[in-house]
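Fold it.
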Amino acid sequence: MSVKRSSIHGQWSSRWVFILAATGSAVGLGNIWRFPYLVGENGGGAFVLVYLLCVVLVGIPIMMAEIMLGRRGRQSPINTMGTLAAEEGLGRHWQLLGWMGMIAGFIILSYYSVIAGWTLAYIFRTGAGLFVDVDATFSKQMFSELINDPEKLLAWHTVFMAMSMVIIARGVKSGLEKAVKFLMPALFVLLLIMVGYAMGTEKFMEGIDYLFNPDFARLADKNFFSDILLPALGQAFFSLSIGMGAIMIYGSYLSQKSSISFNCFTIAFADTLVAILAGIAIFPIVFTYGLEPAGGPGLIFITLPIAFGQMPFGTFFGTLFFILLLFAAWTSAISLLEPAVTWLVENKNMTRVKATTLAGIAVWLLGLATVLSFNQWAFSFSFAGTVKENGLFDMFDIFTSNIMLPIGGLLIAIFAAWRMSRSATVEELGLGDGFYYKTWRFAVRYIAPLGVIVVFLNAIGIFKLLGFVE
């Protein structure tokens, strides 16, 4: 039976705007530093091939399912799951899937905003020339002073949340759509400028080899399961923003005529392209200036500023790089806040401005815990055999990334492939009932859930406990 619904919040003007928005949600700070680092450390081209396979077999099928649910329900994730469950004769408890995604996005944004605030601070620091000719000691000291100063962290966290709230409050057409139409092309242009600069460095080819050459010597002392497959699977799942309600709510604004499968493959391609271009831009610079390609915040906020301080026009290109990081964080942030805002509008009869203000302030308040996690409230604990030193920030990250998102992705796959009627999924996906549909159904029924379960078990340390990984 054909179901015709429309979203009270509006609709994307074209499929390409949706692709830009969903890609913006998927592209974040992790694409810029984590993916290139994983590629370089885990076999170069060999890792890329495994990653792409994981994207196709796990990431894309679940993303297709999440967009399908969003477009069919045309509401906030919570109300969408309630409506679709009732449509299939299922209990209202499926609304918990929507609640879990919305809460996960809410918590993630609370600490993501603080980290994005670091990026804002570094735009001005780099632009002011503070890193010209600095050494590693000074760069590390500058970063430590920032994260140990709660007042500065609070100020930048506040600015970033305000930037995100302004866009959300303006709605789908005037806010989200206008923002992604500018931010995503700008992000790609900035990346290409950085790649162009990297091509002129002395160690450009060394950086390319580090990233893409399938160097099996680097794999000699590595375990394929723990060092290649698990990182690739985890990156593929989390990189596409699955399970946090963002893709579902964006799907609710998608035209009925737009192909879900085409959109998903395009989003996955663009998301991976950004990550690869980031690696091409970063690692030749790192090698040219004799720096260590360490992962995480150390690479972005300590190592790279040293390189920018030494290179010709480093102040200009360093500022561009941190603006690029800001755009990546900004496009992700607005998608994380959107599910909570739509729920408030639908269920509490609020205007969009009031809902955005309420949700934004709540996220900002929760972010204070992260601000203090790096200084006054810092404490250490052990999780899955690894010592964490930043208290509540690490707890939030572990709880959302390692527990809530995998469970959310798994439940999306189960609902779409096992509880939703075959006729409804055939109708919504628009693939017919032939080879392509059957391939998706098999992947989302069997392969994707298995992949998510493996990610989940690894994240909570089960494989380490059993001795499968070190």
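The CA atoms of residues 146 and 447 lie 44 Å apart.
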